[in-house]
Amino acid sequence: MTRLIDRRMGIFLTGLFILTVALPIGNLWMEGKPVPSYAVSLMGKYLCYALLAVALDLVWGYCGILSLGHGAFFALGGYAMGMHLMREIGTRGSYANATLPDFMVFLGWQELPWFWHGFDMFWFAALMAMVVPGLLAFVFGWFAFRSRVTGVYLSIITQALTYALMLAFFRNEMGFGGNNGLTDFKDILGFPLQSDRTRVGLMVASALALAGGLLLARWVTRSRLGQVLVCVRDAESRTRFLGYRVEHYKLFIFTLSAMMAGVAGALYTPQVGIINPGEFSPANSIEIVIWVALGGRGTLVGAALGAILVAFAKTLLTGWMPEFWLFALGALFILVTIALPKGALGAIEGGLGRLRPRSTTATKEARA
Amino acid sequence: MFLRALTFMLGLWVSALPLAAQSFDDLLTRLPQGSFSDRATVVSALAATGDLRAAAVLDALGAGELHVRPSDGALLRVTGRGTNLRGTDVLTGDAVEVAPRSTEAVRVNNSLRRTVRAAMGVLTLRDPDPMRRLNAAEAAFRAPDPEQLEAIDLALDAEDDARVRAALIQARATTILRGDAPVAERVEAVETIRERSPRVVIAALAPYRADTQPEVAEAAADAVATAERTLQLWSQAQNVWFGLSLGSVLLLAAVGLAITFGVMGVINMAHGELVMLGAYTTFVVQNAIRVHAPHLFDWSLLIAAPLAFGFAGLVGVAIERGIVRHLYGRPLETLLATWGVSLILQQAVRSAFGPNNREVGNPSWMSGAFEIGQLTITWNRLWIVVFALVVFAVLMFVMRRTPIGLQMRAVTQNRAMAGNMGIRTSWVDAMTFGLGAGIAGLAGVALSQIDNVSPNLGQNYIVDSFMVVVFGGAGNIWGTLAAAFSLGIVNKFLEPYAGAVLAKIVILVAIILFIQKRPRGLFAVKGRAVEA
Amino acid sequence: MSRPQLLLDGVSRSFDGFKAINNLSIVVEKGELRAVIGPNGAGKTTMMDIITGKTRPDSGKVMWDQKVDLTRMDEADTARLGIGRKFQKPTVFETHSVEDNLRLSLKGGRSVWDTLLHRRTRAEDARVAELLDLIRLSDARNRPAADLSHGQKQWLEIGMLLAQDPQLLLVDEPAAGMTDAETMWTAELLKSIAGERSVIVVEHDMNFVRELGCKVTVLHQGSVLAEGSLAHVSAMPEVVEVYLGR
Q1: How many structural domains is chain B composed of?
Q2: ipTM, 2 decimals?
Q3: Residue numbers of the domain that contains A362
Q4: Cys-Cys link to B485, which of A213, B247, B337, B466 (CB 3.0-4.6 A)?
């Protein structure tokens, strides 16, 4: 059997560890603050994206389910945390209402909708950030996988799912702040969100979540179950004839992945300070796919790196020459699918000649 | 003939009304005097004289522009304000010098204005122009005045134009109903009125549902209820029409996809952007026409359509040759690569034309609306439905009856065999993709008439059009047609209950559930080949 | 006493009006080796699809071991029940190693939790080594299955079938792409398997069928045209007409 932490994972986790130590020191304790606070939050955001990419890699890279709706699970996690942060504002809002968030007072609502109850407790919100996306994925997957919707059909209906959710969350009547979403957060667990220490804390938490997510994903994919997932990806029908209930496996990994995406979303919201229905837009979900494709699907670490790389490039380009960003992203989609089918990591490792050219990524994984 | 009838009528009229015995000029001098109700009497009498000069007087009075010059009692029509006054003698129509404050306005209130309108109606009931008589009858129908019943009766006796007669009969009915005629006559009036169109029936009869005469109240209530049911039916028809209209838009957006996705199995995420390119082609063509040949503006869409088809088709062929070709058999990768293309096209158009909406005008034959019964149909929507069906028919013809269509179907069913038989499969692939893309361009021409032409145009349709193709059953172009129209109609029937956004959500969720039940769509291609 | 392992009784199935299977009745005894032959489109593949639960019959009975109704089951159910299937076109898990292909096929827990918490045992290792030996792929055990030749993939798939330890093996054209020597060896292998297990072989290669030396069922247009020894059926004029004599 292969090791839980192989060389690739080892290098990545070491790098992540160095980053999580170096950035806080540079931000909090060094003279002249060589690391500005916004950079800390930015890195925290990238790490959330990386976790989201790992989640998508689990279903796409290992099980062949190309979800074009993973942004929905991420956003639902983000909304769950956002609801908690709204409740935390309490009387500090513009209308100084102890229970109702500002937008509800503005809409003339008299009492808290039932689904907002419990979110005043952090543990509940944190739980819901996993349970709600997980439940949605479970119900959706139960229908879809049982009736053997596969391939592009599945991709298209996952896209429709996130599109429908986007339309729904844009409605004021839904009770999630409509167009504006949830914002103006003040603090989390009593720590002010604007303070450097809180930002560093959230960044470190994101790093830990990413490391945990990677290890969990790695543990799952190197198990016998992970091997079955690859069987499903490569020859679904054959897998059934061996007696494996393909729909159960898909459902398991899809739900697990959605929960990971939810955690990423929950960590994302306090660091960017807002969550709105735009997060549900189909374009966002497809962008996640390119992170994974660029990094190399079925590599986990590659997906995480791809996310950080693309997000970083986006930050640079949209600030520097915004017109160019969509050209670059579009070209990236074309380039990666045609020229780098195994992703950058696959290409680099293949180029190093460490592995035989005919074997594919997942086998390398198995033998690494 | 007409004049004789008029004279005869006038004679009767004069004897019927004592006030009318006074001369026209006499009445004119009395007009500015007395209370509003006195004036009302005079107005009615003026109308009853049948003197056509009264029309100008009443018209000025109704407009609040009738002034009297106290120095000589002359009636003038005065327009303008302050020092910039213009006067006309109401009787002669000659221009008259008017100094400020040299005249006094003949004041009118709302009830007097109503009387004036009714009196005008009576006057024009005898106008030589049948159109004006018709309008007058309609006016009398809408604002019945029991005192004019006899005038209407007289006009009716003399009238020989069938349409005007019908209108007068209706006007007579409302007038009788308004007055204190016997129950039987009023009920009969209700029965006459209910022959009108439902909206008119409701407006005319709704107040009488609470009439003091129970028979009249009952008849009115019944007539209104019937009219409301009819209206309800028409509103369903309107929904169907809106649904067909939405369906034709969906069909246009989706039918190109039905080719690339349904027939070739290629997911083209840039399909929406090809639609957008078609819309921008229309914009460019219209701009060129505005500058160089404005008289051709009405032809702009017909000129733009082949250009849009050609341009989008060429872009499509380029996409197929440059990208999709390398990815056959890898549908998910194709999806991602074409998404990349869509981002580039969006940004290219944004850079070239700016991010804002572009104005694309409607040619005259696409502006305005007409009515069928209670149904209002706008020309642009109607032409888009026609256009969608024509595009669909031509597409079916190409697929079924032409050599290229035969080759396309052959390559779809068995690529290797088709290749062996000498069909250049790669050329057919490019042509098929180009055809799908060209149709997207045509859709853009149509959508430019009803939607905002902006770089985001395509994004708004991509999810919907995929839903249509998947719902209809990929590979089945007839299924796309059925799916587009049924989704359109269901959507429009849901909208009154759920609102536009919720209706859309409901439909999306319904389709998601439907696909779980029938993964191959409404009109699945059944058989072993599909399951393999 | 006859103990039917598998019984098809009056089974029909049509696709868009085309009757792929038409009132088909077949009985396979426990431990029996049976060859099914027939021209293209005779319904061989659909018959296997129906037995394994991939396709549901429109009418008729499909009974397993005299008590289980197979028409209510799907592929995974029938596989767990003990029906193994080898496809005409060898299908193995290309990215997994030869050894992993076998391990994944071994009889054992198939649920999500079983596989998530699965640990290797000595018994498994021994069984895998045994199978690798049998299918002559011991040297290739760590190579990805994608690297194997067509014949080797056939072997691997047979090995996977055996690893499942099924009660009934459905084998679709096992000899395709094999050398004569390999074909003979395969026939021997199938004969040795029969006895404790039932085997249904679908084959075009008459030499191979002759080598099996078992009862033959001839399918034509979705139903049984003839049944008996190869010599017996080859002598029947209607069989000669539709199949052998063409």
Answers
A1: 2
A2: 0.89
A3: 7-367
A4: B247
